[in-house]
């Protein structure tokens, strides 16, 4: 069929010539491509020096599982406002992750102590490593802030098994419940059995070779025994991981609270009880010993973790002699203020999230000088801008 | 000045001096520490630049200058109106507390607005959402500032006097209170008084809350509402205008 010249031109006009031609065509560019401050690598296992100073986003499902034990309100607020949970990939986190990747798990556990001035990002670094442990399918033993137990416990009770010890039944049961939701999928798969019979009272006991989950459920339903269940749970976890059934990551924030002399807990004589006399302390001291393997221990020491006045932020001072001897040998990892690159990245991120707008270079300089590159202070100064 | 005037001023000064001597026990120095020759400091960089361009800076540099107040900063984030609002918010001279309360309010405003922003899917709708808390405060004050006010006035006695002093109407004490009934006269406001009323209504609305709720939370909502021309403060202003409209027949009393 012959097409006249006129009709052919009409046809050309109707069809989109651009699509049939080989010329380069403008494509709608996704916004994310321009965001050089972000990294798309959301698996912390692969985070290395190439991702440093970039911001990575924790997937929502992962965040839910990581923060089962709760997180400082400040973080949750910020994640909600920004509609995503993003943290900066920083040197200490990458350092720990590289150690975790290369460690020999047949040797006794390595202990890492995060230390630094207030608000430098110890908890963020810990959150990063928690995400690592979650993606690796490890059992997470996480305490978000130990001091919250000692500061104003809801209820205290004298321990049934040990004299002079105080139980915190509510806190213990809550911790157990969160531990269960956080690690249920791994515990069910690993199918850990108890190595010995644990007797709770004259009528109640957890028999040998019964499931570990049953013991946890028992602790949750009978909160009177929850503290004791946690103590036994720690020893069972240690044995299970030593025998290779599971890997455990212990992450404790404000670890030096376990060695504090001042708490808000009082005994029957209305005398203040030091942290060492609280039964929960025993459990978390036990799991940070070096007598087990196939796991890792990450703790932070914090000036604000105890009621006592702290003059220095170094682990040698904060852990006191007792704590230092208990934790030794450990690897101290310093968390410091933002470098200039990190600072710029965070400002870029804040601008992207509309947290700050219309910030001139002078304003940025002012923020840098005011905050001194301290992450918490920067956040505080940006709050009202 | 005539000699008579000089004498009278001298006599008044002397009487004042006697008065102050009698009250020496609890004497406070209410006068400025600085000589009147001292000039006010210019602390904003843009004002300094303008002075420099007009070559007034050199003359100013030779004059004695008062020290700047602690909240007078050359910071980029300085805002005169925000400072004023903080001063109105302040109680018992606790400026730091007031400042923190307003900063927290700004934070809450940002969080509320950002949540709306993130929820909105339409880009045109997103653009409409104001995210700057200072802009919201400015808009809220502008919207809630009244133009008129009602002044109470006693009428019906034999002696009454209205002193019209640039719209500030004062009434002298009247002889026999029992005879008078109150009427309300609509009066235009000075800029200063209008700003005071607008800001104070916002603060009052922020303080009208339950004990458990923080001021910063309530105030944030009130400011956002007022910026959108809705809410209690705007209603209060409209109610006042309605009353002014009803009392318009008394308006002439302010010229007495």
From TrEMBL, chain A:
Keyword DNA-binding: no
Superkingdom of the source species: Eukaryota
Keyword Mitochondrion set for record: yes
Gene Ontology cellular component terms for the protein in this record: mitochondrion; ribonucleoprotein complex; ribosome
Cited Gene3D superfamilies: P-loop containing nucleotide triphosphate hydrolases (3.40.50.300)
InterPro entries to which the protein is assigned, alphabetical: P-loop_NTPase (IPR027417), Ribosomal_mS29 (IPR019368), Ribosomal_mS29_met (IPR008092)
Subcellular location: Mitochondrion
Keywords per UniProt: Mitochondrion, Ribonucleoprotein, Ribosomal protein, Transit peptide
SUPFAM superfamilies: P-loop containing nucleoside triphosphate hydrolases (SSF52540)
PANTHER family (alphabetical): MITOCHONDRIAL 28S RIBOSOMAL PROTEIN S29 (PTHR12810), SMALL RIBOSOMAL SUBUNIT PROTEIN MS29 (PTHR12810:SF0)
Membership in a protein family: Belongs to the mitochondrion-specific ribosomal protein mS29 family.
Protein's UniProt name: Small ribosomal subunit protein mS29
From TrEMBL, chain B:
Residue ranges of domain Small ribosomal subunit protein uS7 in the record: 72-165, 184-248
Pfam (any one): Ribosomal_S7
Keyword annotations from UniProtKB, A to Z: Ribonucleoprotein, Ribosomal protein
This protein's name: Small ribosomal subunit protein uS7 domain-containing protein
Gene Ontology CC annotation, any one: ribonucleoprotein complex
PANTHER family: RIBOSOMAL PROTEIN S7 (PTHR11205)
Family: Belongs to the universal ribosomal protein uS7 family.
Lineage: Eukaryota, Metazoa, Ecdysozoa, Arthropoda, Hexapoda
Domain of life of the source: Eukaryota
